[in-house]
Amino acid sequence: MINLRRFLAILSVASGMFAVEVAFSLVPQNLLAFPASDRAPGEFPDKWIHGSKSAMDNQDPAVQVHRFNAHTYILRENKAINYEGAFMYVFFGNGVALLIDQGSTSSPALFPLRQTVDDLIVAWEEEFDQSGTQLIVANSHLHGDHYAAWNQFVDRPNTIMVGLTHEEVMDYWGFDSYPEQRIEFNLGGREFVVTGTPGHESSEIAFYDKWTDLLYTGDMFYRGRLYLEDWDAWAASIKRLRALADDYPVSYLINNHIEMTDQATVDYPIGTTWQPDEPPMEMSLSMLDQAVRATENISQSGIYTFDDFLIYNEVPWAYTTDP
Amino acid sequence: MRIIKIFLLWVLVGAASLSQAHMLNMTEMRFEVAEGAPAVLRVRVDLGQSGLMNPDAYWAAVNASSAAEQDERLKPALAEMTVGLQVLVEGEPTTMFVQSYDVDAVSLEAIGNPLTPQMAEVRFGFTGPQPVYLDQVEIRVAQTLDVPWPCLVRIDSFDGLPVSRLLTAETRSSGPVVLGVDGGLSNAGPLVSLALKFQAVLPSVSWIAIGFQHIIPMGLDHIVFILGLFFLSTKLTTLIAQVTAFTAAHSLTLALATLGWVQVSPHIVEPLVAASIVYVAIDNLYAVQVARWRLAVVLIFGLLHGLGFASALDAVTLPEESMISALLFFNLGVEIGQVAVLLLAYLSVGWLRRWSFYRTRVVEPASVTIAGIGLYWLVKRLAF
Does a structural domain hold residue A35? Predict the structure, then answer.
């Protein structure tokens, strides 16, 4: 029989290991919580920086950084640098940050996106006592006005570059059946749902953030000219977004551009670098419903006007030769 | 009416230009290489908006009355592209030639407007030896070549995922991309490429390494079990007999489980593995010498540990076409790992075996510790 002394020694070793494990579990981990149950509040700016009459004299920052909430940032490219005035997003989770889209200008001298994001990560780590944050460089879709500064990140340490081909995007997010599939994506404890939304571009994806209830719709739905290369795919994508909004609470739809004025049905001309009368960037579910109704009523290519957006449905190249 | 028409034209020109994408006139390059097919570089470029041709010259080329005339009009631009685009394979420049091209445009006005890109596609072939699997390829655009920026480079090679790179006016090189490897191993040096080639010839090397990793550092419970065997066997021959029995047994169940012939839930296997550690350690405390039946017990525990390896190996996908050899080499790696553990143990305390206090000062404290660790794992694995 095992003697008591040895038995106690064995028990002490096992208890010691448990004690060490318990002690480690009690050490504060600085873990940030992103509960999906409560909607994390956030604020949009009253007015985005919207260019200037003279692009040459523009004194605004190259990248506007707006703190939506402590762990969510919305960036906008200065319209004086590129008229697209594209929006980009940085979502933080524990140990990882997700940058979606990289604007319309490649030159770091003109458009220092990498520096801006690096500064943002350093400040965020300092504020929340975090370190070693990995960056994921991803895209809502594969159009050049949303990945022009992608190159600024390729040599960044501790960075995942999702890639700029359809196959790389599908592989990274884990799509087996694009676009219908809903992917559950965990960004360091912050849960997202990613789904396919082709129509404007054939690799487009939408991101739903369960923490803020924001639904990021990229270029396929925003306040502006919705250029559709594939109507059927877009119509299905709009319905897919509506179904997602039926299954999850959505606070706002957020996106890539503002091209409308604050006057219903009226957009700024293409190439505008000063938009003093912009409406907000964020959109509501009632606007999505309007798009859903449009998918049921539109059957031909052409331009269709709505209060908050315009649909440019498969407008053919031949129009350019119209005398 | 005319004003309305002009307005409509302006709107529609804009619409058409952007109906597929913003910033349409960026340049795109696609390098394709596949098994048994010659490599091709496809370049889509807004020639009329590049420094290679002015809009009038491009429009004239599009409307040429014969193929010969079109060739002649495009010749200077294509020659400039042939020189200005450089594809390096293994660091050596290749020689490209224009294989074919398509030029198209709807109007001179459209060519002149950067918002209505009229893209040409030029396909280049390569003379000389074709790039092969795991070669490093680099695509460069010479400073002298003026194309609309940025330039998206896509490299499709063999069965791997495509690799994307973005070139800009400032960064005119894709950097080395290893063909056939997902992600292209950005910034891979020649040594990495060489190692990959070696591995391609001898895939077994990687399976030995993976097997080794499953002992050191990933297989802590197996290390502890082997140490348990080590502390009882004072004779080298006994130790070798036990370790060999253990190895043979876990190789058998690992093979059976990997081939899908045996399936046992890790919820059962893992606590039993922990129990085997406790058993061996306690046996060490009471057995003065190795009992004959201990070999049978080690054999049974070996079967258990093999099932444990199988669930760990689940995370690694074995290649279907060479599963048996991969398994054998994985086992070999496991054995090398085990031998390494025994060697380290011998170097640490094994040489004290003839010391009269070896049993009381080394074997017993070590066995108590091993039993404690085993007990901790056992409770944890049963509880969680």
Answer: no
Determine which of B19, B29, B185 to mutate to test the interface with A (most A C-beta atoms within 10 Å). B19
pLDDT in tens, chain B (384 residues): 333 433 443 343 333 333 333 456 789 999 999 888 899 999 999 999 999 999 999 999 999 999 999 999 999 999 999 999 999 998 999 999 999 999 999 899 889 887 788 999 999 999 988 898 888 899 999 999 999 999 999 999 887 789 999 999 989 999 888 888 765 554 445 555 566 555 555 666 777 887 888 788 778 888 998 888 888 776 778 788 888 888 889 888 888 887 778 878 888 888 998 999 999 888 888 876 666 777 888 888 889 888 877 776 665 556 666 677 778 888 888 888 888 988 898 888 877 777 778 878 888 899 999 999 999 999 988 887
- What number of other Cβ atoms are within 10 A of residue A164's Cβ? 21
Say if A12 falls within a structural domain.
no
Residue A13 included in any domain: no
Residue B244's Cβ-side half-sphere holds a number of Cα atoms within 13 Å equal to 6
Inspect the interface and report whether the beta carbons of A312 and B110 lie closer than 8 Å: no
Name residues whose C-beta falls within 8 Å of residue A38's C-beta, 6 or more positions apart in sequence: none
ipTM score of the complex? 0.83
CB nearest to B23's CB, from A143, A314, A316:
A143
Residues 105-144 of B with CB under 8 A from A: 106-107, 109-110, 115-116
Asked if B6 is an interface residue toward chain A (Cβ–Cβ < 8 A), one would say no
Kindly list the residues from chain A whose CB atom is less than 8 angstroms away from the CB atom of residue B161: 163, 165, 167-168, 171
Cross-chain residue pair B106–A312, CB shorter than 8 Å: no
Q: How many CB atoms lie within 10 A of CB B311?
A: 16
Instruction: Tell me the shortest Cα–Cα distance from A77 to chain B, in angstroms.
Output: 15
Question: Nearest-CA distance from B5 to chain A in Å?
Answer: 8
Q: Over the range A45-56, which residues count as b (16 or more CB within 10 Å of their CB) and which as e?
A: eeebbbbbeeee
CATH at A256: 3.60.15.10
Residue A245 within a domain: yes
Would you give the DSSP letter of residue B66? Answer: S
* Residue A308, C-beta contacts closer than 8 angstroms, at least 6 positions apart: A223, A260, A264, A279, A283, A287, A290
> Parallel, antiparallel, or unpaired: how do β-strands B151-157 and B27-34 relate?
parallel
Q: Measured between CB atoms, does B382 come within 8 Å of chain A?
A: no
- Hey, are the CB atoms on A145 and B21 less than 8 Å from each other? yes
d(CA A237, CA A292): 10
Residue B7 C-alpha, separation from nearest chain A C-alpha, in angstroms: 11
Q: What domain range is A101 assigned to? A: 41-321
- Report the residue of B166, B174, B182, B380 to disrupt the A interface, i.e. the one with the largest count of A CBs within 10 Å: B166
**Which residues, given as ranges, of chain A have pLDDT below 70?**
1-2, 28-29, 316-323
All structural domains of chain B with their residue ranges: 22-201, 203-383
**Residue B379 touches partner A, C-beta closer than 8 Å:** yes
Q: How many domains does chain A have?
A: 1
